[in-house]
Amino acid sequence: MIEILNAEILGFLSNLEDVDEEYLKIIDKKSTTSITDDLKNGHLTSNICMIVASQLKLNPKKLSSDLANKLDSLGIFKKVESAGPGFINVTLKREDFLSTLRIINQQKEKFGESILNSNQKVQIEFVSANPTGPLHVGHGRGAAYGDALARILSATGSNVEKEYYVNDAGRQIDILTASVIMKMHESDNSFFPQNAYKGKYIEDLGKKIEEKDNFNLIIDKSILDNLPKDPEKEIDEIISYLKNHYQANWKTVKDFSLKSIIKDIKNDLRNFNVEFNNWFYESSLGSLDDSKSEISVSINRLEENKQAYKKDGAIWLNTEDSGDDKHRVLVRDDGRATYFASDVAYHKNKIDRGFDEIINIWGADHHGYIKRIESSIEGLGSKKEKLIVKLVQFANLYKDGSKVKMSTRSGEFYSLNDLIEDIGSDAARFYYLSKQADQHLDFDIDLAKSDSKENIFYYIQYAHARIFSLEEKYKGLKSSKNIKKFNLSNIDYIKCDKLIHEISKYPGIVIKSALTYQPHLIIFYLRDLSQIFHSYYNDNHILSEEKDNQEFIINCMSSVRQIISNGLNLLGITPMQKM
RNA sequence: GCGCCUGUAGCUCAGCUGGAUAGAGCAACUGCCUUCUAAGCAGUGGGUCAGGAGUUCGAAUCUCUUCAGGCGCGCCA
Known about the structure:
Elements: H1 2-14, H2 21-30, E1 33-35, E2 44-46, H3 48-56, H4 60-74, E3 79-83, E4 87-91, H5 94-107, E5 121-125, H6 137-155, E6 159-166, H7 171-184, H8 186-189, H9 200-212, H10 221-225, H11 231-245, H12 247-271, E7 278-281, H13 294-304, E8 308-311, E9 314-317, E10 328-331, H14 339-352, E11 357-363, H15 370-379, E12 387-392, E13 395-399, E14 402-403, H16 416-423, H17 425-432, E15 441-444, H18 445-449, H19 456-478, H20 497-503, H21 506-516, H22 520-539, H23 547-570
Helix pairs in contact: 3-4, 6-17, 6-21, 7-9, 7-11, 7-12, 13-14, 16-17, 19-22, 19-23, 20-22, 21-22, 22-23
The chain binds one RNA strand through helix 3, strand 10, helix 14, helix 19 and helix 22.
């Protein structure tokens, strides 16, 4: 109906003096025709008269009243009024108002889907935690956000591919390998490097490897005694010693540890209801030694495009055009590529795969990194607009009233898996998504477990469960399985109107959530919908209503349940049938 | 110093492509379970939307500025 209304409004405006088509297009963009917040203002509302009036120096009140009269006379709507400073408020005919119920009944779990982004090929890369240990609660937020976003964009017609970038190359993997080896030998020489990873999983990895390959590796005492004091230099020295003296063992430990950790990460994500379509390995980008590798090709092209240059023995990327504050090193003076170089090659690879939109979900601490990646994309001759970086802020975890400390290096942290075991995947996802991703989140585990109204997760689930149970009871009562169609226009029962009005907003919420990349909008909508439902449910005893109304009411209730179910699905949460 | 984010009720937060009296929940107080799930509902009180200036018919929303907080500024990844 909004489209019809808009078309009529534009028709009216085009007949005004001083209005040309160009202008109408601008108006069309700036104005909003939407579902009203409150039923007292009718069903639909438009602010268009105020916008037109301000541009053309007309009286908004007069214009809106003219337009209202015109629209009213068409007979399409039940009532059209001019209100307030110049709003157009439209009351729909009963059957149009109720038509949403019929649509939900037809579309069921598809209700809310649209073709907003039809055929957009979108990639979302998220989590991408270094495979040096288990996922912690910080990663959980990125996982929940990325996955929900993927679901929402899919619902609006995009063809979405979810990808995890595995940093299986570089120094942190060396540190991991050295950590495992040194842990295995800690008891022999009572020494463990300051900067090595320390979690229990390191010990477990060592034990598994010892069970599998009974390898014997002796570390020279004199080496350990002469290590540098600086933690960074100390670990580097150990790495180079182990690599040089125990090449085969090094590879065994490295491969096993990586494989094992990645397997655990996949498993944790599966428990969190997140499945990736693609796992992209940094190592597949190749090395600089191979002139045909993706990483070499990228750097060569940047040089050809005069974006990269040699200076002080290193290769630099000019990133200043895109507003970065300094140039960035791609290849170090010792000939090794930087992490940034890999990332440039990775983004080149993404672009080559032909996505219309590439979404990166990064921790907020990486925000300074955006400009230089954009710059590299431009440098390679592509458009940086294809890249959309969404930042996810840290989540502070609170348990028993105090902050849970987290430190990856020390290995003492509350893992994502701990969280899932503690409160369940659904509640965890819900709370991760309950606030805008780019803002700090205080995650209160006690609240997530509490059974009060403050716990919105249960509040929404409770609405769903109540309706589910009601439907079961109703079916038993009628002993008829399907709710048959009826003539909506004859229903004069109005107590559900507030609910129906709220229901009709759902498709718009999904679209807005997709356009703004904000899953939390769905949560707040579901809470409002649940609130209206609970209120109605308390005031009315449905199963003792008159038969004529009962069927209609159950239909409304089913629609509410369907929407809660659909909405939770977009967040990757399973609705509860019983509580 | 530079960049990004934030500041709304005592607390936790919605609302931000400008629109109608600024909304929820918690906490405080008062009611509602012999009937479909009380993990619920109804009500009362609570606000200089951090401060200031600007843009305009209209600003929590946009611009500038001040203050306060968080994060980031490696030839680390």
